[in-house]
Amino acid sequence: MSTPTSVRDLVGIGIGPFNLSLAALAHPLDGLDAVFYDQRPAFAWHPGLLIDGARLQVPFLADLVTLADPASPWSFLNYLKARERLYPFYFAERFHIQRTEYDAYCRWVSENLPALRFGHQVDAVRFHPEHDVFEVDYTQLDEDGEAQALGRTHTRNLVLGIGTEPYVPDPLRPLVETPGVPVLHAADYLEHRADLLTAGHVTVVGTGQSGAEIFLDLLRNRPAGRERLHWIGRTEAFAPMEYSKLGLEHFTPDYTRYFHALPENVRDRLVPAQWQLHKGVDAGTLAAVHDELYRRSLDGGWPDAVLTPGVRVRTAGRVATTKVELHLEHTEQDSRSRLTTDAVVLATGYRERPLDRLFAGLDPYLRRDSSDRPRVDDRFRLLLDPSVTAAGCHIYVQNAELHSHGVGTPDLGLTAWRSATILNSVTGTESYPLPQRSAFTTFGLDQLRPRIPSAREAKVLTPLVDGI
Q1: How far is CA 427 from the centre of its chain?
Q2: Contact 231, 239 (CB under 8 A)
Q3: Alpha helices in 161-303 (DSSP H)
Q4: Beta bridge partners of 150
Q5: Is the pLDDT of residue 267 over 70?
Q6: What is residue 337's predicted lDDT score, i.e. its pLDDT?
Q7: Which residues touch 216 (CB under 8 Å, ≥6 apart)?
Q8: How many of the other CB atoms lie within 10 Å of CB of 344?
C-alpha cells in the first residue's frame, strides 16, 4: 500500500436517519473532515410503508438533532420554517407527525448537507497497520445503478449505519423468492397496494405496528361485507405498545448505560422480554381498527375479517398457480389448521444487516461475545484488537447494538444523543454537552451516577471488557 496522501477523520457507511443525524451534527464542527456514502441514488425512509395518515410513534422532537442541539439549523422546526409551514404546524397541534412528513424532512436535510455521497457503494474495508488507517474501497454508480468509477479513501474512524433488512420467516422464504407468487414483505406494501386491494382474499402476517397499519389500510379500502381479510401473528394478543411516561424512560441515555453494564446473559434475556416496549402497536392504531370494524357492523352484519393472535405459520405452499396455502398452529390451543388465501403480506419485521461481507478484511481484529456477535463499548465503538485502537482508529455502529445497548437502539428518540456521543469521542472535545441524568427512574439498586468522562478522556480510554 502506498502512503495515503490524505486521511479523513470520519467515514460513514450508509445514510439512513442515524448517519444522517451524525452528518447534520458534524456539519458545523470546524476542522472535522467527514464523508458519508450510500449506494442508493437519494435518501428514502421505508418508502413502502409511507401509508397515508400513518404517524411516527415518537414526538417530533425526536428529529435528527434537537435533543443534542436545539439550535441546530437542521431541526424539524427549522425545516418547517424554511418551507413556510411553521404556523400551520403550530395550529395543527400535532406532537406526532406523519411518516411522510418525517421522510420529507430527512430528504430536505440530505439535499443540503455537502458531506453526503449518494450513488456510492462501499465494497470493502481494510485496516493497514503500516499507516494506522482504514482503507475504504467504493464504486461510484450512475443513474441506472451501474458501475461508473472506482474510488478509495482513508480514515481514522468509521461509522456503520447500514440499517436493517426485511425479515422473512423460513417457511415463507421460497414463496417470496418465486416470481408471480403473491407473497411480499411489508417493506414493499405500497408498490403492490393496488393489486392487494383487488385480490380475492388477503392475509396479513404480523401483529406489530406495520401489520396493524397495513390491515387498517386494506380494511378501509375494501368493500363492506366483502373485506375477505385475515390478520394473524405469533403474539398472544393484539397488544398496545407500552407508552406510559415512566415506561418511556427505557428510551433514555440512563437506561442505555444501565443496560450496557449488565452481564451478557441478562441482556440476552431482557431484550425479547421487553418486546412490548418497541414491538407493540400504537393504541390509536388499534382503536382505529376497532372503530372501522364497528362502523362496518352498524347494519347488523359482521365484516368479513378474521383477527387471530397466537398463531404461527408452520409451513406454506402454492395451490394451483394463484393461491397460497398457509399451515397454521395455534400455540395456546396446540391446534393446527390450513388457510387458503390469494395474497400474503408479511409484516414480520427487520433484522440487522450482516457485517461479514463488508468486514471480511477486518474479522481478525474484531472482538466477539459468547454468541459470536461484535462487542460494543459504551461509546458505540466495536471492540477491536489493541493494535488498532492504540493507533487511534475506531469503528462506531448505529442501530447494530441491540444486544449490547438494548431496546433504545432502533428508537429515533436516542438518535441525536448517540450521534453526539460518537462525535464527542471522535473529536476528543465536548462538541455537544450531554446530560448527566435523563430519567427519574433509577434502574438498579447500585446504579451510581458517576462523573461522565470528558470527551478527550472518552477518546483515549478503551475499556478492556464489554459492559464493565
Answers
A1: 26
A2: no
A3: 173-176, 189-198, 209-221, 253-260, 264-273, 275-278, 283-295
A4: 139
A5: yes
A6: 96
A7: 285, 288, 289, 292
A8: 26
What is the predicted pLDDT for the residue at 203? Answer: 98
DSSP reduced 3-state for 134: strand
Task: Say which range, 100-109, 111-120, 178-187, has the weakest mean pLDDT.
Answer: 178-187
Whether the Cβ atoms of residue 398 and residue 22 lie closer than 8 Å to each other = yes
168: CB partners within 8 A, 6+ apart: 176, 185, 346, 348
Contact 208, 282 (CB under 8 A): no
Q: How many whole angstroms from its chain centre is CA 200? A: 33
Check residue 462 and give its pLDDT: 47
pLDDT value for 467: 40
pLDDT over 90 at 110, yes or no: yes
Beta-sheet strand order (sheet of 157-160) = 116-118, 34-38, 10-13, 157-160, 394-397
For residues 324 and 171, what is the distance between their CA atoms, to the nearest angstrom? 12
Q: Report whether 68 contacts 416 (CB < 8 A).
A: yes
Q: In what helix (H) or strand (E) does residue 116 lie, and over which residues does it extend?
A: strand 116-118
Give me the chain's average pLDDT, please: 92
Which cell numbers hold the place of 248? 418511556
Whether residue 192 contacts residue 186, with contact meaning beta carbons closer than 8 Å, is answered with: no
pLDDT given at position 357: 79
Buried b / exposed e along 166-189 (16+ C-beta atoms within 10 A): bebbeebeebbeeeebbbbbbbbb
350-352/164-166 β-pairing: antiparallel
For the chain, the first-to-last Cα distance in angstroms comes to 37
Neighbours of 295 (CB within 10 A): 12
Residue among 412, 433, 466, 467 at smallest CA distance from 56: 412
Distance set, CA 126 to CA 38, 39, 110, 333, 360 (Å): 18, 19, 27, 53, 8
Distance between CA atoms of 56 and 98, rounded to whole angstroms? 6
What are the pLDDT digits (tens) for 16-32? 999 999 999 999 999 99
